[in-house]
Amino acid sequence: MASTRVLITGGAGFLGSHLCERFLAEGNEVICMDNLVTGDLRNVEHLFDDPRFHFAHQDVTEFIHVPGKLDYVLHFASPASPIDYLELPIQTLKVGSLGTHKALGLAHAKGARFLIASTSEVYGDPLVHPQKEDYWGNVNPVGPRGVYDEAKRFAEAMTMGYQRYHGVQTRIVRIFNTYGPRMRLNDGRALPAFMGQALRGEDLTVFGDGSQTRSFCYVDDLVEGIYRLLMSDEPLPVNIGNPHEMTILEFAKAVIDITGSGSKITHRPLPEDDPKVRQPDITKAKSILGWTPQVELRDGLERTLAYFKKRIESGESV
Ligand code: NAD
Ligand code: UDP
User: pLDDT digit string (tens) for 234-276?
Assistant: First the structure.
């Protein structure tokens, strides 16, 4: 029997590269499609010797041609860190709208099941806490983060359109803050920023007074949740994230502790529209997928630290 073929857009990024590994480990053939705008070929170069792995350098906002059959299309291409999507606002809007349209059109043509990487940002600066999937959100469409949040909200609507009007089997995962190896040290997100600063012995830059909260999920837990969702029958959005909520100040202190750094904490202005709280309600994922996160924060931070140290030892600047 021919093997299952999976297309992963954004496959050379942080999450995409972990998904490529997971689908290969499940015995599938994987096509990793990426234009490398925020990704890095080094994230997948260890897969190049596997004959079931293929890399396609392509912008998914252009027409996508993939020869042969496809069983699954996972659309993960998009700038994802606030620094990246503020630098690339139009590309972010295009990949969420045109890119999602192209990826859905391809899934429709191939009879493949489609999964979109959505985000907790669809809830914006939430007025409901913790966030459940039936909350419609509090997003400022014309604020700086609107380019990302609205692109993802449009992507969800487009996905539901293809499900309802074309009968495409679709899945929507709302991903909450995830961390782990292969994040870029300079992508500006809290974890790489803090670890890089701690390793350089610099002060950690906490934005605002640090009382805003986030809930951090280790990448292996996220990948397991996504895999289960793809294999499930659930057509509506599902939150995947770790409900362990903490303030950013507590998070910065945890990084200082784990690195054993002598760094102190310094405060910088809070970016515009920075959500004040964020915590996933994962009741739905627990009940329909039997999924709960397994990796404790300390364990996940240690694994991520080991990765960053290795990168730095191999000559990468921090
Ligand atoms: P990332 O930047 O590491 O990966 C994104 C990848 O998409 C990169 O390799 C980039 O080069 C590629 N890409 C961007 N635009 C493209 C285009 N037009 N054509 C082809 N490739 C393109 O980010 P990540 O953290 O791995 O995020 C992956 C996905 O998950 C994104 O869609 C993001 O919105 C979503 N997400 C991530 C998180 C998180 O905590 N990491 C949270 C919520 C949602
Ligand atoms: N943050 C911070 N210092 C940094 C980077 C981020 O205090 O150097 C804060 C940021 O303002 C936000 C939280 O950490 O409140 C998480 O930011 P991140 O960019 O990781 O993700 P977000 O959840 O905002 O998309």
Answer: 999 999 999 999 999 999 999 999 999 999 999 999 999 999 9
Residue 119, in any domain of the structure: yes
- CA 38 to CA 34: how far, in whole Å? 9
Q: Which two tokens stand for residue 37?
A: 């705008």
Which CATH number is 159's domain given?
3.40.50.720
Phi, psi angles (nearest 5°) of residue 247: -75, 160
| Strand, coil or helix: 65 | coil
Residue 235's domain spans which residues?
A: 5-179+217-241+280-295
State how far the Cα of 36 lies from the Cα of 56, in Å rounded to an integer.
Answer: 10
Q: Which atom of ligand 1 is nearest to the CA of 84?
A: 2
Q: Is residue 254 one of the residues assigned to a domain? A: no
Tell how far the Cα of 285 is from the centroid of ligand 2, in angstroms.
Answer: 25
Active site residue 307: no
72, 148, 162, 179: the active-site residue: 148
8 Å CB contact between 180 and 218: yes
Q: How far is the CA of 266 from the centre of ligand 2 (A)?
A: 14
- Residue 61 domain-assigned? yes
* Amino acid sitting at position 104: L
163 lies in some domain? yes
What domain count does the chain have? 1
Going from the Cα of 138 to the center of ligand 2, the distance in angstroms, rounded, reads 18
Mutate to test the pocket of ligand 1, among 33, 37, 55 (most ligand atoms within 8 A of CB): 37
Q: How far apart are CA 187 and CA 195, in angstroms?
A: 12
Q: Tens digits of per-residue pLDDT, 159-186?
A: 999 999 999 999 999 999 999 999 999 9
- In terms of Cβ atoms closer than 10 Å to its own Cβ (0-12, 13-18, 19+), residue 7 is buried
Q: Please say if the pLDDT value at position 315 is more than 80.
A: no
Instruction: With a threshold of 0.90, tell me whether the complex ipTM lies above it.
Output: yes
Tokens read off for 52: 């079931």
